Amino acid sequence: MDEARRLSSKLLPAGIAVQEDEPRAVATRLLPAEEPVIARAVAKRRMEYASGRTLARRALEGAGFEHAASFAILQDEQRAPLWPEGFTGSITHTVGRVAAAALSTSLFRGVGLDVEREAPLSEGVAKRVLTPEDEAMLARLRSADRAFAGKLVFSAKECAYKCQYALTQTYLGFDAMWVEVDLDASIFIAHFQREVGEFAEGATLEGRFARGEGLVMTAVAYA
User: Fold this and answer.
1) pLDDT by residue (tens digit) across 66-99?
2) Is 205 in contact with 190 (CB distance < 8 Å)?
3) Based on the domain organization, do 73 and 152 belong to the same domain?
4) How many domains does the chain have?
5) Residues spanned by the domain of 148
6) Is residue 8 within 8 Å of 219, Cβ to Cβ?
7) In whole angstroms, how far apart are CA 42 and each of 26, 98, 157?
8) What crossing angle do the helices spanning 132-139 and 146-168 adopt, rounded to 10°?
9) Which of 17, 54, 79, 131 could staple 63 via S-S, CB 3.0–4.6 A?
10) What is the DSSP letter of 121?
11) Taking the mean position of all CA atoms in its chain, how far away is CA 157?
């Protein structure tokens, strides 16, 4: 993919390897141990899964993992990827885009990456995702920005949840955080609403976002 079209460019600090492409453009190869996980899935899901794993192995190689090409990226009971010892990462996909990040835990302890279509949240999804704090934050924005910012909050929560999961092994609902966004600076701050592992109530994760081609991507790294 042309560098100018990579939303992930400059979203994460140096030392974190990121791969991004269109799913159909990825020469996918599942390893034998990964096949049973996706054997009964429809073709679209198989393509997303396989392209995500392929890019994740490329990212692991870029992060310095010597056995990346032969490492099967399985998943735990929450369907979160299982990374090799000493490394962690994040995989994300939506229609038309797939991306993966990987890094040595000697540099950062957690990373989150999420990509979504820019379409506004439906009323039902908004009720499930947005906390009163999120809604108050959105109300302070210009009305023209609120639809995009609502979807950005959704992506930022997905991104932050992935990052914290590597450390807490705890599945969180959307009410566990609220998010404030700075659209001019292209940053977001996710605030924990309750204590989760080493994250106290009120702790924050700060990340960045990029948008283009009808997509929004969020990314966060935690040291």
Assistant:
1) 999 999 999 999 999 999 999 999 999 999 999 9
2) yes
3) no
4) 2
5) 114-222
6) yes
7) 18, 17, 27
8) 140
9) 17
10) P
11) 9
